[in-house]
Specification:
This protein is of the alpha/beta class. It is 46% helix and 15% strand. The protein has helices at 37-48, 80-98, 115-122, 149-157, 159-168, 174-180, 192-203, 208-223, 226-242, 244-254; strands at residues 13-18, 21-26, 56-61, 104-108, 111-113, 125-129, 133-135, 172-173, 185-187. Helix 1 packs parallel to helix 2, helix 4 crosses helix 5 (159-168) and helix 8 packs antiparallel against helix 9 (226-242). It starts with 12 loop residues before the first strand and ends in a 10-residue tail after the last helix.
Length: 264
Amino acid sequence: MPPSIAAPASDAVQLTLQGDVALVRLSRPAKRNALSDGLILALRDTFQHLPAHTRVAVIHGEGEHFCAGLDLSELQERDAGEGVFHSRMWHTALDAVEKGRVPVIAALHGAVVGGGLELASACHIRVADESAFYALPEGTRGIFVGGGGAVRVPKLIGVARMLDMMLTGRVYNAAEGERIGLSQYLVPGGTALDKALDLAARMATNAPLTNYALMHALPRIAEQPADHGLFTEALMASIAQAAPEAKARVRAFLEGKATKVQKN
């Protein structure tokens, strides 16, 4: 039988709404937002029950750090079966972030370490400020990633770089992290959340079905054989462009009423 799991810690995750954007704050600053089982379950519940009108979500951390990883004070001795059930609980929670209804942006600052990097890698866009740093110390602590990092992090930076991080305890700073793909944006200190909210406001104006297709179809297409991927692409393109909102947007563009792409 699965072991008993902690109850969701509703006070560890704060949800506020800014129009169509859901702002999700990790709220354990005294613990550097370390991930307890209660916090993980609260994240799961938050993303499984976002308000219906939400179009984009932003995750950020209260205090000086995004998330310093697993709360080691909660680390328990488990047999192999209990360990599997515990890891799968984390997988379910972070799948709710990655594979939910809306795209998710992570605003990163300070520590993005261990489970914090696993959480960030479950988001679709990562904005880091200059204070951010990244590490996977599990290898030097005699443990292994268990929150989906073995699947998600190599897709961002490659297996060799993840091996290096875990075998040697290597730490990447914010600039290095952006260079290797741990974040897509690098901004001045203290501005990651502002940039994330700016991107979220822009993304919230997209057709919801297109955002959903990008979140769910594009990663699968990337892992399919080319002929399968091309067929999936054709199906998704036909579904997306058949939506009434897509037809209205194309019509507006053809009538000269839509904003054209401009060079930055």
